[in-house]
Design brief:
Blueprint lengths: L7 H19 L6 H9 L3 E2 L5 E2 L3 H14 L19 H13 L5 H10 L10 H10 L26 E13 L7 E11 L5 E7 L4 H15 L4 E4 L8 H9 L4 E4 L10 H13 L11 H14 L13 H6 L10 H8 L1 E5 L6 E4 L2 E4 L7 E6 L2 E9 L2 E6 L28 H12 L6 H26 L7 H11 L4 H13 L8 H12 L5
Parallel strand pairs: 3-6, 6-7
Antiparallel strand pairs: 1-2, 3-4, 4-5, 8-11, 9-10, 11-12, 12-13
Length: about 525
């Protein structure tokens, strides 16, 4: 291995690591990071040859990021294809500037990614330092003020995927109202985040920030990603509704946790997600051709699937999707019929003698006249409701005159082109990519089903092994499966090796099964059977 004096790049990497090592060791909380970086920047450090080494707080922030992404090699000076400042043509410089002017919230990394994926420049041609110098020369590099909470938040993370979900409502942009031409309405976003993996489970914009809009997103999350153990919500009236408590109870979710009054931040995670959605998604609407709510939701799903869930998270150091999948064998899904029933709304009605009753201004007719019935329905699809009597399903009925209760999909003419049209429609690019990749990946439910099938095969192999090696009089399959559910999965080789060792030391095949299971447990925990 070369000495430091023979490898000046490594020597400089070690010197930079010495400067940031205190920051890495302390792992400062949100609100303390900038203060610690400024404190380190105020000191005078020593370079490889003993010279004074000064570094600004922002430079130290870059070094920390480079070290976390590439280790000690990430702190080395990156070689350039050209000595000095990398050369960009005047046309390339103008394209970089236009990408920033189109959406001022775009970061250096996002500008480079957009430019390369949309072939504005050749891949590998741009460097962060080059883009930064170009933007700084044209007064476009100023960091926008942060909107993060100033109070320090305690650190917390759920132990595993689906242990805790968080949700909040984000006030979104204005869009043309399809029901009133010439007018606009505010769009609201409900989204759910997995606390452990930071996975964006699902989100949907709606013109109404009400309970049906929230439940639609929650139900899709349950269908896609399984059932959480707990949910962490804001104190808003929609989240505290009785119907939401009914859904949680019906599906066996452990409990709902609400934020403290006067302190809505859920340990900062859902708030950080909302800030990112504003900066990285909503800001891109300036350069997009999105004019309808349906197109906005399609673009949001593409952004979540291809951008957010597949980028390394700054806190966990992993892609959210990769981190969630690591414990996919623990994920449990609710039965689809139980899920449907849990989300149905319930209203008590007493039809007249002809069986007619009213629901939200619509009249329905049932064969159960003059009897107290329960009507179960989806508030977004009132064209078909269920009639229940004494908690037993009776029939499904439709209104006398079927009317449209779902807002029809409407298209708006594209806006007229302005004098300075955006260089790249990044959201449109993501939507096109997602459409091409549709169904190429297994869904989360398919992954869980595959993991469950593998676990069942592994457990069955253990059951078959014990059935061959033990006396049938002491073999209790139920006890064995209960033990595997608690302590498994167990490697077939480990189980075989344990039994071989026990029999070699005089164990009998007619000893109680708990004797063998206790020995196998000790072996798995590092003991000797």
């Amino acid at each position: 291995m070369a000495h430091d004096e023979d490898d000046p790049e490594r020597a400089w990497a070690l010197a930079r690591y010495q400067v940031i090592s205190a920051y890495l060791a302390l792992e400062p909380r949100r609100g303390e990071r900038t203060r610690l970086l400024e404190k380190l920047a105020a000191r005078i450090w020593r370079g490889p040859e003993g010279e004074d080494l000064h570094a600004a707080a922002e430079t130290l922030r870059v070094w920390v990021r480079r070290y976390r992404q590439g280790g000690l090699d990430g702190l080395r000076d990156k070689p350039r294809p050209h000595r000095g400042v990398q050369v960009l043509s005047a046309d390339e410089v103008e394209r970089v500037l236009q990408l920033k002017r189109d959406v001022p919230e775009r970061s250096l990394d996002r500008i480079i990614k957009i430019a390369e994926e949309t072939h504005v420049v050749e891949p590998g041609h741009l460097r962060r330092s080059t883009v930064h110098r170009v933007l700084r020369a044209h007064d476009l590099s100023a960091r926008r003020p942060s909107t993060a909470a100033t109070r320090d938040l305690d650190r917390f993370e759920a132990d595993s995927p689906n242990d805790l979900w968080q949700s909040d409502m984000l006030v979104g942009p204005w869009f043309p109202d399809p029901e009133q031409p010439g007018r606009v309405r505010r769009a609201y976003l409900y989204a759910f985040l997995d606390d452990h993996s930071r996975l964006l489970l699902h989100g949907r914009f709606s013109f109404r920030g009400d309970l049906p809009a929230l439940e639609l997103v929650f139900r899709r999350c349950l269908q896609k990603w399984g059932r959480p153990r707990r949910c962490y919500y804001d104190n808003g009236q929609t989240y505290r509704s009785g119907h939401m408590r009914q859904i949680v109870a019906a599906l066996g979710i452990h409990r709902v946790v609400f934020t403290q009054v006067g302190r809505p931040e859920g340990h900062g995670k859902i708030e950080a997600l909302n800030r990112l959605i504003r900066a990285a998604f909503l800001a891109e609407l300036r350069s997009s051709h999105i004019t309808t709510l349906d197109a906005l939701n399609e673009a949001f799903l593409a952004w979540a699937d291809l951008e957010y869930n597949r980028q390394i998270h700054g806190e966990t150091g992993e892609e959210p999707l990769v981190r969630w999948r690591r414990a996919v064998d623990r994920v449990k899904y609710a039965d689809e019929e139980a899920l449907r029933q849990a989300f149905l709304w319930r209203e008590e009605r007493t039809p007249d003698k002809t069986g007619v009753f009213s629901l939200f201004g619509e009249k329905y007719q049932t064969r159960l006249g003059k009897r107290r019935i329960q009507v179960r329905f989806d508030p977004e699809a009132l064209d078909l409701v269920e009639v229940w009597l004494d908690n037993r399903f009776q029939e499904r009925v439709r209104p006398f005159q079927v009317s449209t209760h779902r807002r029809p999909h409407q298209t708006k003419p594209a806006p007229e082109a302005t004098a300075a049209a955006p260089l790249v429609d990044w959201l449109g690019h993501l939507v096109a990519r997602r459409q091409k990749q549709e169904f190429l990946e297994p869904t989360p439910r398919q992954l869980v089903e595959q993991a469950t099938a593998r676990r069942q095969l592994a457990d069955q192999a253990i059951v078959d092994l014990f059935a061959r090696r033990l006396d049938q009089a002491v073999l209790c399959e139920a006890t064995l499966r209960d033990w595997l559910a608690r302590f498994g999965p167990v490697s077939l080789d480990d189980a075989r090796r344990c039994l071989d060792g026990l029999f070699a030391h005089g164990a009998r095949t007619d000893q109680h099964i708990s004797f063998f299971l206790d020995a196998l447990q000790r072996q798995l925990q590092g003991g000797i059977p």
